[in-house]
Amino acid sequence: MLLAMETAILLVLSATTVLSLWPGKRYVRLVSVGAMFVAVLLVADWLLGHGRWQMIPSAFLTIVLLLVSFIRSRRQQDRKVSWPIRLGHGAFGLLAVSFLVGALLPPLLFPMFAVPTPTGDYGVGYAEFQLTDTTRLEVMSSDPEDKRELMVSVWYPSDVPEGAQPLPFLKQPAALKAVFPQFGSFASTAFSHLEDIPGYSYAQTPLSAKKAAFPVLVFNHGMGMFGSANSLMLENLASHGYLVFSLEHTYHASVVTFPDGRRSPYKVDWMQGSLPVSIKKMVSDMAAIQYAADYDAYSTRIADLLKGYPVLDQGISLWVADIAFLLDQLAIADDGRNPTLERFAGRLDLEKTGVFGMSFGGAAAGMFCLTENRCKAGINLDGLQLGTAGKIERFALEVPFMLMNSDRRIEYGQYLQGERDWRDPPEFGMNDFVFLQANAPAYTMTIAGAAHNNFTDLAFVSPLGKWAGLHGDVPPETMNKIMNEYALAFFNQHLMDVPSSLLAGQKSGYPGLMDFKKRQSGMGKDPSLVN
Fold first, then answer.
1. Could you please report the per-residue DSSP string of 183-194?
2. In which band, very low, low, confident or very high, does the pLDDT at 437 lie, cut at 50, 70 and 90?
């Protein structure tokens, strides 16, 4: 309803402004009717509690149109049109067009949008809880006595009661605002409307009684991001019968808010200068890796790159420990020994546990699946597989794993420009050493037109991300559909034993993919031995 009302306001206001540029009393009447209709919609929008600052310029333009139509209607019809009046009409025309642009830009830059509907048969419940690991000191805190504290969000299959009101699309407003510190205090205003967009999750509703127990998925956000930045994917998986737990990695998330009101912001200096001195240098290194002449050259270059990130490897170890701690607590909860997670007692099928994540969280998922047998399947959403200390030959996964990759030619074209024809497909994926050494079914895919940040929901929030080069050309609806369908197919096949034709290989011909490859164990490192 919100989207429909705002769309109607902007369309009628645009048509009314255009009509106001024509002389003649019949046009004056149409302008008057159109402006009054917009005014009624704006007032109704405000009375319903949906009014937002982005519509203030529209309200101003509506008032101007009402005043102009009133003045014109009072003018005598046979009055001679002198040159000052013509000049006034021209000036008004310029002002009207300027006002219309000013009215359209704010709602288009920070739009209302329809949240994609989950495709599963279950309703979706949502809850948050705090966990404290009393066995681990908080290495990121200035207080040597602090213990590691984590917040966890969970999306779960639910029997949603009749009449329940859905939670907003944006469940962590403080975390989103902290992602954009350059907005300053304006961030609170810029994104406030997202809390008025309804999603498809419901707070604290009962766990579904349709099954005795549900498989468990653990999600890890990107560095400096937050768990619900991927809520569309997590919500969709829950609608298909998964318990999806999203970890907030304290001091590495944009900001973590605890139930008592304490906030732990992102530690901007934790990397201690370990990254390359320039983005162009980092992008150039990655291009050299992906366009290497053969696997030996590729493996040497990727190993050298990964050796330069010892601090990041320490961060991966911290996140792997967080994942392990969460699964420890879920095991206790399943036995009924954790009151915080009482609703899940006896309902967790921990023998079917998947771990996945975006960016740094994807690398943490890969390392957890390599080192912990509790992971039965995993997905890395465009995360360079850190954690190896450059010893890439030791990365041989024993569980099914999927790599979803961005189209890095976008970055190469932006930063390296004419050094070569970046339309050529690369020879290797960034994480091909993971794919080609796997001792279990492995998949790698690249999404055409997708930049790194397209692997979150933020492309829905504003087109500014695309204009700033943060997002690629792939439409957010298309990106969401690809991520959802492939993640669901992967976990269904490898956790639920439900075969999927999507995972059959390149012949699936799914639109929007540059490539899709799969391999079975024991095929060797030769890139030609895949399909």
1. GTTHHHHHTGGG
2. very high
